[in-house]
Structures are given as structure tokens and as C-alpha cells.
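Dissemination and training. As part of the outreach component of the grant, students in the summer workshop were shown how a complex can be specified as a set of sequence lines and then modelled as a single object. The example used during the hands-on session is reproduced here so that future cohorts can follow it. Participants entered these lines:
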Amino acid sequence: MSTTKVIVGPVHPALHEPERFVFKVDGEVVVDVEPRLGYVHRGIEKALTERSFTQGLYLIERICGICNVAHTLAAVQAIEDAFNVEPPKRAKYLRTIVHELNRIHSHLLLLGVACELIGFDTLFMLIWRDREAVMDIIEMVTGNRVMSAYNIIGGVRRNVSDHEVLEMKKVLEALVEKVKQYKEVFAEDPTIRARFVDVGRLSRAKALALGAVGPTARGSGVKVDVRAEEPYAAFDEVPLNAVVYEEEDSWARLMVRIDETLESARVIEECLDKMPTGPVRVRVPEVAPQSSEGFSVVEAPRGELLHHVYTEKGNDKPLRYRVRTPTYANIPSVCEMLKGGYVADIPAALVSIDPCFSCTDRVALVDVRTSERVSVDLLTLARRYWR
Amino acid sequence: MVEEHVELVEAFKRGLGGGFLSYEYDAKRRALKLFVERGALTKAFELINEACGGEYHVTTITGADLGGDEVEFTYSLWLLPQKLRVMIKTKAPKSDPRLRSLVSVAPATILYEREVHEMLGVVFEGHPNLERLFLPEDWPKNFYPLRRK
Amino acid sequence: MLLRLATWARLRSPWILHVNTGACNSCDIEVLAALTPRFDVERFGILLKPSPRHADVLVVTGAVTRQAAERIKRIYEQSPDPKFVMAVGTCACSGGVFQNCYGVLGGVDKVMPVDVYVPGCPPRPDAIIYGVLKLIEKVTKGG
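and obtained this result:
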């Protein structure tokens, strides 16, 4: 089955389709990969220099809705670093709890989407149904299902009651049992293994050399997790065990996330037990108290996330604000994974890095011999091109 | 200061000579800021590569126009064996915004250099492909969004 | 509400094409959540389709980046009549927090006519379903 003969969607070579990747193919094999990153470019770094620190938080939260907690956490920590402000201990614990709840929802989301992509609809529905329990406790704690708006400069926006603590423990206990079952499925189900094992190979050497982060790196044996290496929030008192797999393929990257979900549940439980009483925020000046620089590196669900801010004394806006998202860091590794692989493996490899884009997004396939160009969405590619 | 980290700073002083300007160390955060001349960047990376046996992670490159005559750069790295974050800082004058590309020494810099070029107009000499990364193709040629007026 | 939805669905089951025009993904995951067991719009025949040629309703999220604008215009053109457009999320309605950012046009109606606006950041799956109901009302009333 030659990919160049099947036309999916109209072909307009003159019009620049905003695909995420352009794949040069020779028959069924990917020869080269070019990333196209302009689709979601919104000019955020520039916009942040035109907004106050607090206004900026609303924008920062929306860099990625799925891991909005990681972004606001990195932001408030970077600004606190520049302002030389220390949030109260209870706030650090609460930040950690919500940070890990966000990770659990994000990982379950991805695991479900991975199933959906390969046509395993039942499992997708089951995982997303169970994920709703996490959405409920996130809503209970922060007031919102998705956009938490929970981290503020100086602490967190809301406290948590004893009843809410008990509720969280109850929900997580039930969820852990479900996730352990899903772990067995992902480890042993022949359909899942057939579609993900040995797909998207990324050696440890390449993962490190190309700057891979998160489960993408840890699925290839790179033992780096910011929570363990550069502890922030409450991780200095509630240590985390980094999850690493050595198989270097898409399956390993998915398994890392399942184990991380279990580890996150354990960390939340420990935080709930050890959390000290006290205030949840300190007052912070609206303008920068000094001309300085601050940075914060956190482990977002997709990997290492950096926020870097430059402040000017007396200015309520940052001079410069830089965000380096984990998916961006993983792009060179994704290109490496796909080169020399089959076109049919593209969706399974892409979904395994948990990219910041959806199944209806498109990729372009250009045949190196005929120069014929085809634009196709990932879901169709996954369903129709299964070898 | 942890002994391994002391050794690292000494190695930089020896290896970079006049290119080494100063350093700041934060023990609590396990972070080392290293201020160097822009010509010493490649050598600094080579020294890090040696000190880590290749086991280091490039987090990113941040370029910043803070309003003065220069563009400031921060190369943020994580050294695995030393468990240390190293931030190499350097500057280039706006009148001559050029740096040597580090792609051959540290492949992970490939997209970050493109981004700094696109956003600030800095040229990375020796980079294989300094094409646009985020901005639409029809955006004006000499428009660098993160340059200040 | 559910009875009215079921009644109408017996007449037609709208097929939906979901398009992200540079959104932060939070609206997209709530649109997807509407299909999952807890909310389950699929039992009314509402299906998510990947191709514009089968779509009755375009569910659009995102503030519309300049690159995405070209894409949704073409999708709109390729969808057969009658077709309807739902702007889901505050960004799709007006640009949201991304108004005045250099990369963004600021709302779906800058590019095509919109039939239903569902504000929210993101709107809950319940709100999105309510938006679909409003659209159906509009359609059956001949709007």
C-alpha cells in the first residue's frame, strides 16, 4: 500500500497548510522530518512584557490548559525568586498536591487518547470516565475543572478543609486500584503492544544529546526528573522516586506515565499527611522590589518546564519573560524517532510524547520521488495506514 | 560549596583564561551562574562535556534585550553527574549581534538558536538552517518581536 | 434538556468536526469529555468526525492564529451545506486573554459567521452540550 496513491483531503500545493510536521517519505518509509511550530504561536513572551505580573498569570495559565498548574507554579516561583519572597510552608504543600493532581489528570488524558488513536475506544472511554473523579477533586480544591487559577505570587489562592483532605484520600485510593488494572492492560494487551512496542525508537544517547525531557527521556533510560534532582515546592520534604524505563520506545513512554500516576497518588497522600497548618499566602508588592532575575524549573506532566523572568526595580511589568515548554524541547527527539520508521508508526510515536496538539491536527507527507504532497490528519493516518 | 562544584569552577578558570569573567553560586538551589566572553562559549561547552562525560542536558537558550546596547544570553544546562544547574551567561553588542553556533558541539541547541535568531535578530554563525521557526512566512523580514525600541 | 435533545436527535444526528485554531487545549479536552461516559452526547447520535466533508457542525476552539485562519476558512468551504459554526470558549468568541497579541486574529467571527457562542475558560462539558442544544433550537426554528 503506497502512501502516495491514497489522497486524503484535497491537495493544494500552492497553499501553505499549517501542518505540525512535514514528512519526506519514500513509499512507506520516513526519510526526513521537518517540524512546523508556527501553528500555535500567539506572541506570548512579548505580551507578557506588556502586562503586570498578576495580569501575566492569566496569560501564562493559558499557554497550555492541560498543564496550566505547572505553568503557574513555575511562574510564581520564578517571580518569587526575583522578588526574593518565600511563600509559607502550607502553601508549598498545597501547590505540590494540586501540581500532582494536574499530572494525574494529564497522564490519564493522554493514556485515553493513545487508546482512541489506535481504535481501542472502550479503554479510552473507561480511562476518561475514571479521570472524571480527578476532575471532581481538582474542582473541589481549586474551584474549576481545568483552569485552576490556584497558584498566586506569594502562595495559593485557597485553603483546603479537613473534609476535603479526607475526600481526596478516598478518591485517590479508589483511583489507584483502577490505575493498577490499567497498568496490567498496557503491559500485556496484544493490541496495545503491537501498536506501541518498538515504535518510535529513541536511544538513550540520542535522547540526552537532543535535549529530550519528561517521560520521553525517562522512557529511554535518562534518569532525570526535576522533582527529584532540583526539588521545589514540598519535594524537599516529600521526596519523589523518578520513574525510568529502558525499552526506548513508545510503549515505554506510556508505561512511565502509568507508574508516574501511581507515584503522584502516593506523593499527594504523603503531603496530605505531613502538611503543616498556617497561612497559605504572604502579601507581595505589586511592583518589583529590585532589579533582578528569577528562574524556576518544574517537572510539568510532559517534562522539564522553565520560566525565566527579568525584573526592574519599581516596574510592575517584567522586562523579559521566557517560557520553554517541554513539548518544544522534545521536538528534535521526535524527528529522530520518526526518521527511518514507517509512515504507519507516526501517530503512535507522536502520541507517546504527549504533544501539545490534537488528533485532528494534520501532517504533510511528501514523496521524495514524485514530489507529490498529501495532507492528512493524525486520526485518519492511525486508522487507515495500519500495516 | 560542594567539592565537585569547586573543581568545575577551577576547570573553567583554567580552560577559559581571559574568557572567564566571574561566577555566582547558589548552594541551596544547586545553581552556578558563569559569566563569560562570547568567544569562550564553545570552549565552555567543551569543558562541560569533559567534566560530565557527555552526561549533560541542555535546557534552553534565552536571549534578552533589556533596553541597553547589548543582547544578553543565558545558556541553561543541567549536569547529571554533578547534579548542578549551570547557567552560562554572555553578551553581544546590538551593533554586532553574532555568536558561534553550538549545534556541532551540543545538538540540542538547534531549535533554540533558530528561535533566538528569529526573535532577536542574532546570527549564529555555522548554524545549518536559520530559517523561521514560529513566525509566519509572510511576516516582514527584519521584524524581531523581542527587540526593544 | 436531555429529552429535547433526544427528540431532535431522532430527526437528525449532527456530525461534528472539531477544529483547534491555536487554542490552549483546555476547551478541546472539555469538548472531548462531552463524548465520554459521564456526559455521553454520543447516545444522541452526535459523533465526532475528522473530515469536513461529513460535518454538519464545526466546533471551533482557539483565538484563531494567523496560520489557523487559512485552515478554517478552507474547512468551512469544504463542509457541505447546511453547516453551522459553534465558537467554543472565550478565545473563540472574542480572542479572550490573547486579544491584541501579535500572533492572533481574535475570535472565529473574524473569519466566518458563527451560529452559537459558548463562552467559558473553558466552558464545562455541560455548557458545551447546552450550546449544541441552543444550536438545534435555532435550526429547528429556521434560524
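The interface with chain A takes residues 29-30, 54-60, 62, 64-67, 74, 76, 78, 80, 83, 85, 87, 106-112, 119, 132-137, 145-146 of chain B (CB under 8 Å). Students were then asked to discuss how this feature might be tested experimentally.
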